[in-house]
From TrEMBL:
K(+) binds at residues 263, 297, 300, 302, 306. GO terms for biological process: D-ribose catabolic process. Belongs to the carbohydrate kinase PfkB family. Ribokinase subfamily. This is Ribokinase. It comes from Paraburkholderia caballeronis.
Length: 329
């Protein structure tokens, strides 16, 4: 497996290009004190509709973090598809979004606990669930011109794999966010320069229960044995473990205020990490950048709408000073 490419101009003013394959859905978010039981109706405290979907959230996060972003997906010919296009236009994202006739744009039901900000989500990919290898062939030139390619598992696996294969062929750094966790052919792992699972996803992929840093390292070792270049296990309020062949570093989370909503934080991390890599940051600095982005996002409602700007991320990093002490081995 080729090593991740290094890119010149590691300056923070270099935007870099990130190509993202994934889904768009419109989020329908309900806030309440608790989840209703089967057959029960309860009153909620708030409702919000807005743009979402892992791929689209990552695209918004990367664009606000300063990257030039190309996003590949499919939408339906409906009102939710119109919301998607308006979102991408407002964020300066170049959309390669085919229209799937007779299929609705995807949607997600998000429950948010009023007290903790924790969430439970049901997602229906809709039109983006029809993505396939031919969609990757249509954006090969975009991928070839990028510094970083990102994909996940909300769209069909064969599309994600073709995207990773295409990026690898053009020597473009690959970031794979294996969410939601699905059984995968082992052949996909050697295509990943970086993989960014959370605790649950890392456990599903490796069979190693992840509930602390030591177990995250064991899961990271298992992913390296499968052929991944570097594993980054996100650990919520504890930060993210950057685990590679030559280093294992826990990058602490940023605590930026009261947690309002955690939905989208993982997407923000991956989008921010990809944007930082595309600008030429080293992996540890890129993980810290992603943690700062995610730390700000959880203090705001929504998924894509919660993503901070580059100026906000820089201000947080500047206020925090030099990289925080990290546990390493």
């Amino acid at each position: 497996m080729s090593a991740p490419l290094s890119h010149d101009g590691g300056g923070a003013n270099q935007g870099g290009r990130v190509v993202i394959l994934g889904i768009y859905v419109t989020d329908l978010t309900f806030r309440a004190a608790r989840m209703p039981l089967p057959g029960e109706t309860i009153g909620g405290s708030a409702f919000r509709m807005g743009p979402g979907g892992k791929g689209s959230n990552q695209a918004v996060a990367a664009a606000r973090a300063g990257a030039e972003v190309v996003f590949c997906t499919r939408v339906g010919n409906d009102e939710f598809g119109a919301i998607a296009r308006a979102t991408w236009a407002a964020e300066g994202i170049t959309a390669r979004a085919g229209v799937a006739d007779g299929v609705a744009t995807g949607a997600a039901h998000i429950f948010v606990d009023d007290t903790t900000g924790q969430n439970a989500i049901i997602v229906v990919a809709g039109a983006a669930g029809t993505l396939g290898p031919s969609d990757i062939e249509a954006i090969e030139d975009d991928i070839a011109a990028a510094q970083v390619f990102v994909t996940q598992l909300e769209q069909p696996v064969d599309a994600a794999r073709r995207g990773l294969e295409t990026a690898r062929r053009h020597r473009v750094t690959t970031v794979f966010n294996p969410a939601p966790a699905l059984p995968l052919d082992d052949a996909i792992f050697p295509l990943c320069d970086y993989i960014t699972p959370n605790e649950t996803e890392a456990a599903a992929l490796t069979g190693e229960r992840v509930d602390d840093v030591a177990s995250a390292r064991r899961a990271g070792d298992a992913l390296l044995k499968k052929g991944v270049g570097t594993a980054i296990v996100t650990l919520g309020e504890h930060g993210a473990l950057l685990h590679g062949p030559n280093q294992s570093v826990l990058v602490p989370a940023f605590r930026c205020g009261r947690v309002v909503e955690t939905a989208g934080a993982g997407d923000g991390f991956t989008g921010g990490f990809a944007a930082a890599l595309a600008r030429g940051m080293d992996p540890q600095a890129a993980v810290r950048f992603g943690c700062a982005l995610a730390g700000l996002s959880v203090t705001r409602p929504g998924t894509a709408p919660s993503m901070p700007t580059l100026g906000e991320i820089r201000a947080l990093l500047d206020a925090a000073g030099p990289a925080l002490a990290a546990a390493s081995q």
